[in-house]
Amino acid sequence: MNLLVAQAQQIEAPEIHYGAIAPVLVVLGAACVSVLLEALLPKHQRWAVQLVLSLVTLVGATGALILYATSDRPEQGVATLAGAIAVDSPSLFLWATLLVLAFGSILLIADRSVEPGGAFVAQAAIRPGTVQDRAQATKTGMQTEVFPLTLFALGGMMTFVASNDLLTMFIALEVLSLPLYLLCGLARRRRLLSQEAAVKYFLLGAFASAFFLYGVALLYGYAGSVKLSAIATAAGGTDRSDTLLFAGFGLLVVGLLFKAAVGPFHAWTPDVYQGAPTPVTAFMAACTKVAAFGGILRVLTVAFENTQWEWRGVLYGVAVVSMVIGAILGLTQTDVKRMIAYSSVAHAGFLLIGSIALTPDGEGVSATMFYLLVYGFTTIAAFGIISLVRNSDGEATHLSQWAGLAKRSPIVAAVFTFLLLALAGIPMTSGFIGKFVVFSAAIDAGLAPLVVIALVASAVAAFFYLRVIVLMYFSDPAPDGPTVTVPGAFTTIAITLGAVVTLVLGLWPTFVLDWAGTGTFLS
Amino acid sequence: MTPTYYLLLSALLFSIGAIGVLVRRNAIVVFMCVELMLNAVNLSLVTFARINGSLDGQVMAFFVMVVAAAEVVVGLAIIMSIFRTRRSASVDDSNLLKY
């Protein structure tokens, strides 16, 4: 009882730095407005209004971000909302990355030209396989709730990369995950696959977040607080039991690695990437990766840097497993979306190398953030291309159907070739620069053997990218093969954005690299 | 009674939940096992709050309850929609996506 009284007297309203958190507030506020519009507007107006609102929100949030980033802000960043959110240079970089990637994803999600009516089901409650379902597949109109769901997920991601304590991080993790579970189950065609992907993602995601939460609880028991800096202080020098610290760390990291699709916690990735509607897969592959690795970087750097010699070996092993699984299993895939999913598992391994390369000058952090940015743009464009190759019952994702694609559509095949080369890390593409900066940071941090393994894994992975290129250029097209849809403006913009960024950052990466290296995490 | 017993109970409940997720077939039961894991965490949060002499852990337990409720809403909706198609909530039947 005395405890309660004592606490009640201390409470005072925390200071809120509105300018710094404006981008997150804009996104989450617009998501709420968007839910309201869904309830009030007649059905035929919703798509246009929701699309305009989403795009205006993203532009507005980016504007608020630029305004704050160029203003006279403290060099090391500010912690606001009673220290729950840290707005520092890495936060701003990751926010900007997330907003621009979400812009591309929203364009893919909103597109109604590739699939008449859009990639999403008209009414999620209709049972797959029924008469009504066949009717909705040909009707125009889609479940426009996808826009508020996307904005909520984006708001969660932005909070996740900036959260300075583990409770905020957990809430942000759920805010970003729950809308994604729903989005996965809303495909217009192949609805059973889509629903199955949603169930798998949901059950495994909830399982992983329970692990994350138990880790939070144990670390709270260890440090007496869930603030990242308090955990660092507690781990710095106490006689407390290390069991709590390392058990907590292990469980926490399992939860984070699951979200980031790092092998051996990748089991959901291929299924969910294949089953989910392709625009959602693009959003998940690009933005969730950025958010999850943003969180991993912050947790490892701020809370666990001074215990790194204890845990580094474990994550070293995880990175090796992830790269090997991604590269080897990617070879055996026959579906384009699953192949890209395994490639993302391999890329997660490369990103983890950058995340555990903790050098005092923060080189590993800036290299990993650069890699996240380039990987995100390349992936969005790649999934944009995948959504274009179609036959009468939807997307033709089986690799055999891609044979001879260059003869039917030279431009699409050329762009896809370029994107695959970027994923493989060939010079003149951003993928090469990304791998180069991550690997050089890792060598500086004394991880040279890991870099050798990573180079071998990249070489193996390059084989399955090249196999697709060979298939597209040197095989004869099947007579009843798929056609390549001419995309409307939205998909064209999204693919162009991804491909141009991939090219430009492959040739002139200095500007973004400098920006990624401007500051370190607030601790 | 020392608080350690509560921590052990919480670890036990968490393990039961985790094993349940791995061995049970029905999606609803799997989901209930996840909820059991979350509630086991609540028990340790409250116990640690008692040990540390601060209220943070109890506040966190409230946040966890809210999140668990939100998760139920989303989860049951997803499980319902696949159940209506398949007339079965068994996770073994969801086998279209593999390899």
Tell the overall outline of chain A.
globular
Report the oligomer.
Answer: heterodimer
Largest interface summary: A-B, 45 and 46 residues
| Through-space gap between termini of chain B | 51 Å
Low-confidence stretches of chain B: none
Question: How many β strands of chain A by DSSP?
Answer: 5
Order of helices and strands of chain B: HHH
Q: Helices and strands of chain A, in N-to-C order?
A: HHHEEHHHHHHHHHHHHEEHHHHEHH
Number of helices of chain B: 3
Derived structural class of chain B: mainly alpha
In total, how many domains does the architecture of chain A comprise?
1
Beta-strand content of chain A: under 5%
Number of helices of chain A: 21
The outline of chain B comes out as elongated
Strand order of the largest sheet of chain A: 4-3-5
Helix content of chain B: over 70%
Instruction: Please count the beta strands of chain B (DSSP E, at least 2 residues each).
Output: 0
- Report the C-alpha radius of gyration of chain B, rounded: 17 Å
> For the CA atoms, what is the radius of gyration of chain A?
23 Å
- Biggest sheet character of chain A: 3 strands, antiparallel
Query: Whole-Å distance between the termini of chain A?
Result: 34 Å
Q: What can you see in these coordinates?
A:
The complex is a heterodimer of chains A (523) and B (99). Chain A has 21 helices and five strands. Chain A has 523 residues and is mainly alpha-helical. In chain A, strands 4-3-5 form a three-stranded antiparallel β-sheet, with no helix packed on it. In chain A, strands 1-2 form a two-stranded antiparallel sheet. In chain A, a hairpin with a 4-residue loop joins strand 1 and strand 2 (85-87). The mean pLDDT of chain A is 91. Chain B has three helices and no strands. In chain B, helix 1 runs antiparallel to helix 2 (27-52) and helix 2 packs antiparallel against helix 3 (56-86). The relative contact order of chain B is 0.13. At the A-B interface, helix 1, helix 7, helix 8 and helix 11 of A face helix 1, helix 2 and helix 3 of B.
